[in-house]
């Protein structure tokens, strides 16, 4: 529920665990918290993104959009919302995106450690042929030929079975970032197997895509209101998750 005393601020993560909706301090729209980012003030009076919504202190909620976060900085919305002088980095929107990227990389690394990732064109191709994977990952800077071949195999498998089967295709990370997550070199293609760590990766990837695309592509903004699985159900190629 929203705070009646101050609609812009929550009372801290411990006192508002049941809240599912919040008001964006910039757009003034009430949205599900999954479509927002919580910001708090550090002991050094710096504004930082609380992506996991666990940091202590009162929080200000901003739509999960790079453009809206940048607008909050431009308007001095954080100083107004927290009602104090603060140190707000002019690069806060980019810094927040970097934190989101790091979260996606960490989630993929955890999925790999849990044995829920296969990497390399041939291994991904083999897993696809066996219908053993739950999501496909392409490096955003990967060669079009390999991506096209694997996407064709996805479509072929869909034609041989249940076409409504949800199948996300994620292109949120570069090859260098995939290398970092998986601890190997020149990763262009990977695939997720079933498991909780894989679900965490998909959720974080979806948030990152929404943050990047919400203002550049209104269609993507509408898709962001669905889960990653629902979005991919309608578009099984890389287009559904391009960043």
How is this structure best summarized?
The protein is an alpha+beta fold. The chain has helices at 66-74, 77-82, 92-113, 121-129, 144-160, 175-182, 196-213, 218-223, 228-234; strands at 21-23, 30-32, 36-41, 47-50, 60-63, 117-119, 135-138, 169-170, 189-192.
List the helices and strands and how they pair.
Layout (H helix, E strand, L loop, with lengths): L20 E3 L6 E3 L3 E6 L5 E4 L9 E4 L2 H9 L2 H6 L9 H22 L3 E3 L1 H9 L5 E4 L5 H17 L8 E2 L4 H8 L6 E4 L3 H18 L4 H6 L4 H7 L9
Helix pairs in contact: 1-3, 3-6, 3-7, 4-5
Describe the structure.
With 243 residues, this protein is an alpha+beta fold. It is 42% helix and 14% strand. The chain contains 9 helices and 9 strands. It has helices at 66-74, 77-82, 92-113, 121-129, 144-160, 175-182, 196-213, 218-223, 228-234; strands at residues 21-23, 30-32, 36-41, 47-50, 60-63, 117-119, 135-138, 169-170, 189-192. The strands form 3 sheets. It has a 4-stranded mixed sheet, sandwiched between helices. Strand 7 (135-138), helix 5 and strand 8 form a beta-alpha-beta unit. The model is unreliable at 217-243 (pLDDT under 50).
In order across it, which strands form the biggest sheet? Answer: 6-9-7-8
- Tally of helical runs: 9
Distance from first to last alpha carbon: 33 Å
Class by helix and strand content? alpha+beta
Number of strands: 9
What order do the helices and strands follow? Answer: EEEEEHHHEHEHEHEHHH
Q: What does the main sheet amount to? A: 4 strands, mixed
Please state the CA-atom Rg, rounded to the nearest Å. 19 Å
Mean pLDDT: 82
Helical coverage, percent range: 40-55%
Shape: elongated
| Low-pLDDT ranges | 217-243
Q: Which range does the strand content fall in?
A: 5-15%
């Amino acid at each position: 529920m929203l705070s009646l005393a101050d609609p812009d601020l929550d009372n801290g993560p411990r006192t508002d665990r049941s809240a599912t909706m919040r008001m964006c301090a910039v757009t003034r729209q009430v949205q599900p918290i999954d479509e927002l980012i919580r910001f708090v003030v550090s002991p050094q009076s710096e504004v930082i993104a609380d992506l996991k919504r666990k940091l202590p202190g009162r929080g200000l909620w901003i739509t999960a959009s790079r453009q809206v976060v940048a607008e909050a900085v431009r308007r001095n919305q954080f100083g107004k919302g927290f009602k104090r002088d603060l140190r707000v980095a002019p690069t806060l929107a980019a810094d927040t995106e970097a934190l989101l990227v790091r979260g996606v990389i960490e989630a993929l690394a955890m999925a790999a450690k849990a044995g829920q990732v296969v990497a390399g064109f041939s291994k991904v191709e083999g897993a696809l042929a066996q219908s053993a994977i739950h999501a496909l990952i392409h490096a955003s800077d990967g060669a079009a030929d390999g991506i096209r071949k694997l996407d064709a195999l996805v479509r072929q498998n869909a034609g041989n079975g249940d076409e409504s089967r949800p199948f996300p295709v994620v292109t949120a990370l570069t090859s260098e970032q995939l290398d970092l997550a998986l601890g190997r070199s020149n990763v262009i293609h990977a695939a997720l197997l079933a498991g909780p760590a894989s679900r965490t990766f998909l959720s974080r990837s979806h948030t990152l895509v929404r943050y990047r695309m919400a203002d550049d592509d209104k269609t993507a903004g509408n898709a962001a209101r669905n889960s990653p699985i629902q979005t991919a159900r309608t578009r099984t190629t890389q287009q559904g998750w391009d960043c």
